[in-house]
Design goal:
Organism: Steatornis caripensis (Oilbird)
Strand content: 15-25%
Protein name: MSTO1 protein
Distance between the termini: 32 Å
InterPro entries: DML1/Misato (IPR049942)
Shape: elongated
Radius of gyration: 22 Å
Order of helices and strands: EHEEHEEEEHHHH
Number of domains: 2
Structural class: alpha+beta
Strand order of the largest sheet: 2-1-7-3-4
């Protein structure tokens, strides 16, 4: 199971390199969880696949281990290993940005250039339409999946199945439904990080 994360657009300031941008996010990551579940403050990840497009490394005098990397792929991979030590991480970098020409909706901030990079100050006049943006997307297996899967299990458990007679009349057996429900709970426990909160909730429900 994996959860989707993304940064649209990727927050790269105009004229800065990828190492410059990532160095500003040593304590956090520049992408957000796409699920409605609340993100966890503690950074932890079991495995992840990350794709970045539209951001170049640019050759500059090395000022950090990230700047010393020879390629954009190495920069991103080094960053992932630093922020998520011990996690299995794969990364891919594409030079082409994502095009945002019509009919792509123009919901971007005026602080973006036409190429989707951040301006260092507010423009004196309304900026032109954003034509392309750098984007980062990630599929990650992390403890947040415990919360996502367990919440789904709790929601399904609360269903009043008597109101869903047509659902079971379509061929779903009650025992199979209950087995799938317990399987969902077991799956959520695979991503648990030693919390006993959910177990206590189950005991309270049974009482």
């Amino acid at each position: 199971v994996a959860a989707a994360w993304a940064s649209v657009p990727f927050p790269a300031p105009r004229g800065s390199s990828l190492p410059d941008t990532l160095c500003a996010y040593q304590e956090d990551v520049p992408w957000k969880l796409l699920s409605s579940c609340r993100e966890q403050k503690v950074s932890c990840c079991f495995a992840q696949s990350v794709v970045l497009r539209g951001v170049c490394k640019e050759r500059k005098q090395p000022t950090s281990p990230l700047h010393a990397c020879e390629s954009t792929e190495q920069v991103l991979q080094h960053y992932l290993h630093t922020v998520f030590p011990g996690a299995f991480s794969t990364s891919h970098v594409l030079e082409q940005p994502c095009n945002t020409l019509p009919p792509y909706p123009q919901f971007f901030s005026p602080l973006l250039t036409r190429q989707g990079f951040l301006l260092d100050r507010h423009p004196s006049r309304s900026s032109a339409a954003v034509e392309s943006i750098p984007v980062l997307a990630a599929l990650r297996s992390s403890p947040v999946l415990h919360t996502l899967l367990y919440s789904l299990y709790k929601d399904l458990q609360k269903l009043n199945t008597r109101r869903w007679a047509s659902f079971f009349a379509a061929g779903v057996e009650w025992d199979d439904f209950q087995e799938a429900l317990q399987g969902l709970r077991t799956l959520s426990q695979c991503y648990e990080m030693g919390s006993e909160e959910d177990e206590s909730e189950d005991e309270a429900d049974s009482d």
